[in-house]
Amino acid sequence: MTDLPVLDHWIGGSLAAGTSDRTGPVYDPALGEVTKHVRYGSADDVDAAVATARAAFAGKGGWGRSSIAKRQTVMFAFRAILHERRDELAALLTSEHGKVLSDAAGEVARGIEVVEFACSMPHVSKGAYSQSVSTDVDVYSIKEPLGVVGIISPFNFPAMVPMWFFPLAIATGNTVVLKPSEKDPSVANWLAAALTEAGLPDGVLNVVHGDKEAVDRLLVHPDVASISFVGSTPIARHVYETGTRHGKRVQALGGAKNHMLVLPDADLDLAADAAVNAGFGSAGERCMAISVLLAVDPVGDELVAKIQERMANLVTGDGRKGADMGPLITREHRDKVAGYLEVAATDGASVVVDGRGVEADGAADGFWLGPSLVDHVATTSTVYTDEIFGPVLSIVRVASYAEGLELINSGQFGNGTAIFTNDGGAARRFQQDVEVGMIGINVPIPVPVAYHSFGGWKASLFGDSKAYGPAGMDFFTREKAVTSRWLDPSHGGLNLGFPQNE
Ligand code: NAD
After folding, report:
1. In this structure, what DSSP letter does residue 309 have?
2. How far, in Å, are 161, 374, 385, 431, 500 from residue 400 at the CA level?
3. CATH number, position 219
4. Residues 240 and 107 occupy one common structural domain
5. Domain CATH number, residue 311
6. Do 195 and 325 share a domain, yes or no?
7. Which of 81, 113, 228, 449 has the most crowded Cβ, counting Cβ within 10 A?
8. Strands 350-353, 372-375: parallel, antiparallel or unpaired by DSSP?
9. What's the confidence (pLDDT) of residue 489?
10. Residue among 161, 209, 215 to mutate when testing ligand 1 (max atoms within 8 A of CB)
11. Which 3 state secondary structure label does DSSP give 291?
């Protein structure tokens, strides 16, 4: 290792080096250079973080028993810090992820939305009360925190995805061990430090950096009550199966291949704008990116021409310099994505715009791949079937709405989809027929607002619970139903029958 800085874990309210010697490089993808290293936590480091979180949760003075007022005060203060320093956070995010600054700011804004929802937790987490369900008997439900919860997040939204979970976990009284992506880990420490500044007691949010070793320990640790995971489908499946086998509540959000269906009556200019924005924003490294456009005959040629025209104006480059699209996350990932352009040609598709060899506005070693457009993609090609997770937009020509719908419904994923049309009846039919968790009607990236819930179907979500919104609040709490009677002499007497209400 060189004399570059090393990013520590965050345990018990301060930085901690942990016990492991293993580290990994963190790149600035627009420079193509390693700028720091990050520690890879061992099982012992996870155990230390869980023990710290457990101690912070438990007992009379623990976070699990903290008042709603206290939790709300922390959340409001955290929100204020995020607002004041959002540019600083976005810049840090861009320096490790590569997405352009405006996009990083957008990610932070969507994270803040969830913090705001968490500020409303006193209202959202209220239980129900039924008076006199039987003579002098009342029934009410109360929601209690789970204990220590684990969160494992991907590289593509290093601020927003952890914020899908930890604000709600904390606002409902849980304590947290977060294992962020090792590719862009600094944002997690920034958020943890901001929460401390906001008044969160030490040990309520802990960050353990690392890879599979740390994740696998979290999945089996007896004191971890639940796992919230976001990442690729094979790892989501592993997390779900291992976590549930060890008795945990698990929500594991996986990969995607989102289709946009353009009907012939759609406004093709708006559809072309949407396809370019949703296909190439964040270099296609979004789980809600549009990666396949289904053009219903006869609009394909005109739509492809309009998309191509718009792509000619896109600047790929360093996200700090006003480019439209930044680099990919690593050199290996860039090469893998570029490889699909080779496959496309071999499989008989036409590569209309080839992003290899793009002249990027940035350092020569940056992990560049320009926006790429592939037409007439065969649905048997891996360009169609794989999640590419890069700036490659595939066009598939279909003869009808029914053919497009059938393609969407037969895919392995069911994260997001969009229909572009001016026909309200067709849109309504689509919303009913399509087997996907999040649907856009003339909206290409239908990420629900924080007071609804986020999640896909099929291989895009393992488990029963979506992220954030009411589903998130339910996920992080368990309910007690209390049946109560204040004793009265008239209640005496023996009766061994099953209680009935009178
Ligand atoms: P990834 O699956 O490689 O990594 C996700 C997390 O799992 C990271 O913290 C990583 O350290 C850990 N991990 C990686 N390999 C592991 C292993 N073998 N065992 C245990 N843990 C392991 O995903 P990524 O490349 O960081 O993120 C991109 C993926 O995430 C894409 O597939 C994208 O669609 C998906 N994603 C999905 C959503 C959603 O809401 N459905 C949102 C964002 C990203």
Report:
1. H
2. 36, 20, 20, 16, 58
3. 3.40.605.10
4. yes
5. 3.40.309.10
6. no
7. 228
8. antiparallel
9. 81
10. 215
11. strand
- Measure CA 294 to chain center: 25
Task: Judge if 302 and 344 occupy the same domain.
Answer: yes
pTM score, whole prediction: 0.97
Q: What is the ipTM of this complex?
A: 0.99
Q: Tell me if 135 is assigned to some domain.
A: no
Query: Which of 451, 466, 497 is where one domain is finished?
Result: 451
| Full residue range of the structural domain in which residue 98 is found | 6-125+140-253
Say what the pLDDT of residue 462 is: 98
Q: Are residues 247 and 297 in the same domain?
A: no
Give me the pLDDT at residue 408, please.
98
267-284 burial, b if ≥16 CB within 10 A, otherwise e? ebeebbebbbebbbbbbb
Task: Match 């007691």 to its residue by tokens.
Answer: 201
CB of 230 shorter than 6 A to ligand 1: yes
Same-domain status, 372 and 280: yes
- In tens, the pLDDT along 230-270 reads 999 999 999 999 999 999 999 999 999 999 999 999 999 99
d(CA 21, CA 41): 9
The answer to whether 225 and 477 are in contact (CB under 8 A) is: no
Do the beta carbons of residue 220 and residue 232 sit within 8 Å? Answer: no
Same domain as 349, residue 205: no
pLDDT at position 490 is: 79
What token pair was written down for 232? 């690729």
CA angle 251, 254, 258 (to 5 degrees): 130
Strands of the sheet containing 137-145, edge to edge, are 129-134, 137-145, 477-485
Residue showing tokens 């995805």: 161
Band of pLDDT at residue 499, cut at 50, 70 and 90: confident
From the list 82, 90, 230, 287, the catalytic residue is 287
- Judged against a pLDDT cut of 80, whether residue 1 lies above it is answered with no
Residue 417 phi/psi, 5-degree rounding, is -160, 165
Q: Has 287 been annotated as catalytic? A: yes
Domain count, the chain: 2
Q: Does the CB atom of residue 330 touch ligand 1 within 6 A?
A: no
Cβ 99 under 6 angstroms from ligand 1? no
Identity at 494, one-letter amino acid code: L
Looking at the domain assignment, is residue 458 inside a domain? no
> What's the pLDDT score for residue 488?
81
Q: Record the tokens describing residue 225, joined without a space.
A: 């009550």
The answer, yes or no, to whether any atom of ligand 1 lies below 6 A from the CB of 231, is yes
Take residue 357 and report the two structure tokens written for it. Answer: 């060899």
Give the strand order in the sheet containing 33-39: 6-7, 33-39, 23-28
Nearest CA to ligand 1 atom 34: 255
